[in-house]
Amino acid sequence: MEKNTHENCPVATTLNLLSNKWKILIIRELLDTTKRYGELKRNIQGVSEKMLSQSLKEMEQDKLIKRTVYAEVPPKVEYSLSEIGDTLRPIINSMKLWGVEYQEKISQN
Amino acid sequence: MEKNTHENCPVATTLNLLSNKWKILIIRELLDTTKRYGELKRNIQGVSEKMLSQSLKEMEQDKLIKRTVYAEVPPKVEYSLSEIGDTLRPIINSMKLWGVEYQEKISQN
DNA sequence: CTGAATCCGTTCTGATACTG
DNA sequence: CAGTATCAGAACGGATTCAG
Q1: B11 → closest Cβ in A9, A10, A92
Q2: Which of A46, A52, A62 is nearest to A23 (CA)?
């Protein structure tokens, strides 16, 4: 069985695009505004360069984010949500709401 | 850095509960109706007994599903969505819709 | 500054065999 | 029928070093 994506399960497709500890945090950072590599690294506490680069690269290939390189010295690279990535907003939001309710319910025990 | 759950990110909480190749497929099976262990095993093509048991156990601990044991021989165990698990419906659905659209957009290239 | 490359320990998965 | 136990390979994650 390959990577994931169980044939006809679009839910899994969606999940696979986000399932990695950091991607969701990256998206959260980009919801507001475009950010530079260094900003992401600083803001997302605990992420290693490897994981950040890797996640960004995959998300770019998946067309969830856009990568813009400026021909400057020193280099400047900006990341932002792509059009497709932007459509994740409502999902992210409903997951956030659900997560909050879940934590409340669970902690009541 | 532990498991996941980035301090105050409810989105991650939600994601963590589902992020395992099989859990989402299990939920899908249970959306309609209660199912027995063997049914799940047969219906979810490719899942190993270990992964199925493990996922079910975790989901039960997370209170996403209910496990009902019947004192019979041979044994009979039924799984169904819990009240909390049931509230995932809209999220599952929006993820499904998003996944479908995503696949369409991507395949247009 | 923005990464790529490497090394290495941890975790996750899956096949198989076995149990009450 | 409904699991558990074991074991090995794959994938993941992080620290560090190097490069344009």
Answers
A1: A92
A2: A52
**Tell me: the pLDDT tens digits for B94-107?**
999 999 999 999 99
List for chain B the helix, strand, coil content (%; round to 5): 55, 15, 30
Partner-chain residue, chosen from A94, A99, A103, that has the shortest CB–CB distance to B90:
A94
- Give the residue carrying structure tokens 């047969």: B42
* pTM, to two decimals: 0.90
Instruction: Name all protein residues with C-beta less than 7 A from any atom of nucleic acid chain C.
Output: A 1, 36-38, 41, 49-50, 53, 56-57, 67, 74-77; B 3, 20-22, 46-51, 74-75
pLDDT tens figures, B34-79? 999 999 999 999 999 999 999 999 999 999 999 999 999 999 999 9
Q: Which fold has domain A21-108?
A: Arc Repressor Mutant, subunit A (1.10.10)
Domain boundaries, chain B: 21-108
With a 7 Å cutoff on the CB, does A50 touch strand D? yes
Q: Tokens 């093509």 sit at which residue?
A: B45
- Beta strands A35-36 and A65-70: pairing type? unpaired
Residue B28: both structure tokens together: 């899908």
Distance of alpha carbon B19 from alpha carbon A75, whole angstroms: 36
Q: How deeply is B77 buried, as exposed, middle or buried, from its count of CB atoms within 10 A (0-12, 13-18, 19+)? A: middle
